[in-house]
Amino acid sequence: MTRYLPPATQPWSRRIERRHTPKTGSYSSFRQCLRWEFGFSCAFCLLHETDLSQVGVEGWSLMQAEHRISQSDDPSQRHIYSNCFYICERCNKSRGAMSNHEHGLALLDPCTVAWADHFERVGDTVRPRPNNHSAQYTWEIYDLDDPSKVQTRERRRYWLERYAEALLDCANLELMLLDKAVDEADDRDSAKTDRRLAVAQSLRRIESSLLEKLAEFSPIPKNRSSSCRCGRTEHLSLFEGLAEQTIDLPELLTQAKKHRKE
């Protein structure tokens, strides 16, 4: 069954486990490993590749490899895979060359802690939990709620909800027209029945187009690689923190129904 990104990605409920062990090389060669490792998402602000570009970001600079121990602090860590994260360009630029530690505070590592223990989603923002100084420091350094990031989260939620509601409307109207056509099948006005059936067919085509738009919100982009520098394929899957949040069409439609009643 087709799975989609959730309308709102929640902070990971578990740490991101390092499953990839790429061959030694330049950190730029780790890109495909990092894409799969971090679920095609920024490890810090949770934005997905799809959020940043509906046609995919491969070949662009929207998603980058970032070093936990900065290259200026320790050049020997530059090409160490375990020191690299998949991160959006804005988070990377926000941190710049800031150190992991400052005034007794430390940047949190999503590969050693569960993000949900330190952050919570509030509307379209990702907020540090109260009295969590390391989370506050991480939130500030990476500027996790930069206005553009908040707007990007809002955009995904908005369109997933709109597409789901439009599908509900089309399905309900199509069913009503077909029921009417059946009820009037014995009437002399066959032209009216034909018109109802034609409109029902048009609605079916609109539904198909809406499903194509929803497919753009796949958690695994179409341009993902079927191989990586590890030389294996068994770990080319979403990490559990994101996989458990993906949603299928019935769930999405149920959420849309609930949203309308609220």
% residues in beta strands: 5-15%
Strand order of the largest sheet: 1-8
Count of β-strands: 8
Q: Which regions have little confidence, pLDDT < 50, spanning 5+ residues? A: none
Oligomer class: single chain
| Principal-axis shape | elongated
Cα end-to-end separation: 28 Å
User: What pattern of helices and strands is seen along the backbone?
Assistant: EHHEEHEEEEHHHHEH
Radius of gyration: 23 Å
What structural class do the secondary elements suggest? mainly alpha
Approximate helicity band:
40-55%
Rounded average pLDDT = 89
Number of helices: 8
Main beta sheet, described?
Answer: 2 strands, antiparallel
